[in-house]
Amino acid sequence: xxxxxxxxxxxxxxxxxxxxxxxxxxxxxxxxxxxxxxxxxxxxxxxxxxxxxxxxxxxxxxxxxxxxxxxxxxxxxxxxxxxx
Length: 84
Hints:
The chain has helices at residues 6-9, 12-23, 69-83; strands spanning 50-51, 65-66. It folds into two domains: 1-31, no CATH class; 34-84, no CATH class. The protein has three helices and two strands, in the order ααββα. Helices cover 37% and strands 5% of the residues. The relative contact order is 0.16. By secondary structure, the protein is mainly α. It has a two-stranded parallel sheet with strand order 1-2.
């Protein structure tokens, strides 16, 4: 799964992980990324794979659904929100 909205980020397990790491004076690094076409459709459930274009993955050979301008804007906003 991903960390893509406040509900996901605020889960108790993530809070506990952060507290335990910080207790040892260490820091966590989170990398934000979108799998796009490079994800197995089997692992994606009922949702279609989304990518900026409908070009198939050379790894999984699955053609994603091309994202609309609205979906691209929402994804961009979600990443900006997650990074804030």
